[in-house]
């Protein structure tokens, strides 16, 4: 049975945060690697 | 075409002869199969899970591991004394070489599977003989599929570091369709379901085999050309 | 502007647009009745899956072109696409369970779709591990291309398993022959998200490709 609406918001927030973290982390990693190349 | 097959047969015969002389890989595959089946036999609680539910998965896991043993062996032998270069210089096509290796691998795995199924019937008491023909068909279809990919990959992996580890890592996703199909159909067969229920899975297996035997044959030359 | 710089700007642009998607999905898209708030993970999970598939598609395509035309740039593109695909797979594999848990009651199930996402991840990892493990630099692009092509052809077969297995996974409601059965505001959010994730793919690949320049790399 799905949990009541108000209770599964936590999962939603977790997913949105994790996605942002992964994508931002990769962005920084790439930016740093490409910057190093041009030194 | 005839020449192609003849050359492939020569290669396969050479490999099989080599294997039967030393019998190391074959022996270890048999022992391994028996070991896995014994472990599963003793590990399960017959009152908890009916054998018939577990049996197909156990069987196919055993087959895949045994196949890995065989696949590793395939190009390993050619590493010594640059035997592979010798083979490549010989007046046979790359395709014959591939099909020869593929054929030898199939025979190897088929032998292990036969022993495996016999032990399997012995330990798990599953009604294989009633459905032996469809069961044979499923085994053949599934095995052809993943051995084709396995043969191609083993040709490459032999040139890498951590060769024995690389093969399972690379092969895992490719095992999934044939193995899940094989297990699904085996479950239905042992449960005495009509074959028509497995039609979709069998079509998947046939399609997979067609696609990957062609593809691996096409790609093999890229792994050995200079 | 160099390729790396253009890639960086594209990525940053895409990230701003992603923030916009976040706002739209969280605030301005209706809540789904049966699944509740957790359903909104859909707007990230599905586009991530799309980007991962796109990545794999390009790895395969570039691999075919490399073997046919022997141009090293295709190999570089394939390597870039594989790395980026891995990142999107990570998003898929984290958002998937986070969506599954509240809606199905379990973090993971070996149903066909989830298994497909995991296999895709293993394909990307295997591809990159192989690149790292091949010591001969002339062999590396060829071996990688072989695996890349096989991986691409594998996808439809894994996907076909979806329709053969009884599965917990929602049956396709967007990409199916009849019209999508998603209500309009949700569909719009989803489509916008697809666009943003595609743009992200482009930005990432541009930078990763630029990195490959001159390097005897993996």
Structural summary, described in words:
The complex is a heterotrimer of chains A (39), B (226) and C (218). Chain A has 39 residues and is mainly α. Chain A is 74% helix and 0% strand. The longest helix of chain A is centred in the middle third of the chain and has 29 residues. The N terminus of chain A is likely disordered. In chain B, α2 runs antiparallel to α3, α5 crosses α6 and α7 runs antiparallel to α8. Chain B is 82% helix and 0% strand. Chain B is globular and about 60 Å long. By secondary structure, chain C is an all-alpha fold. The two termini of chain C are 25 Å apart. The interface between A and C is medium-sized, with 28 and 39 residues.
Topology:
The complex is a heterotrimer of chains A (about 40), B (about 230) and C (about 220).
Chain A: H1 9-37
Chain B: H1 2-22, H2 24-43, H3 51-76, H4 83-89, H5 94-124, H6 132-157, H7 163-190, H8 199-224
Helix pairs in contact in B: 1-5, 2-3, 2-5, 3-5, 3-6, 3-7, 5-6, 5-8, 6-7, 6-8, 7-8
Chain C: H1 3-28, H2 42-69, H3 72-104, H4 112-133, H5 140-164, H6 184-212
Class inferred from helices and paired strands of chain B: mainly alpha
> Level of helix content of chain C?
over 70%
Number of contiguous helices of chain C: 6
Indicate the percent of residues in helices of chain B: over 70%
Number of extended strands of chain B: 0
Q: Work out the largest interface and the residue count of each chain.
A: A-C, 28 and 39 residues
Task: Spell out the helices and strands of chain B N to C.
Answer: HHHHHHHH
Q: C-alpha Rg of chain B, in Å?
A: 18 Å
Oligomer: heterotrimer
Shape of chain B: globular
Alpha carbon gyration radius of chain C? 18 Å
Number of strands of chain C: 0
Give me the strand/helix succession of chain C: HHHHHH
Question: Strand percentage of chain C, roughly?
Answer: under 5%
Mean pLDDT figure of chain B: 83
Low-confidence blocks of residues of chain B: none
Percentage of β-strand residues of chain B: under 5%
First-last Cα distance of chain B: 25 Å
Task: Give the biggest sheet of chain C.
Answer: none
Shape of chain C: globular
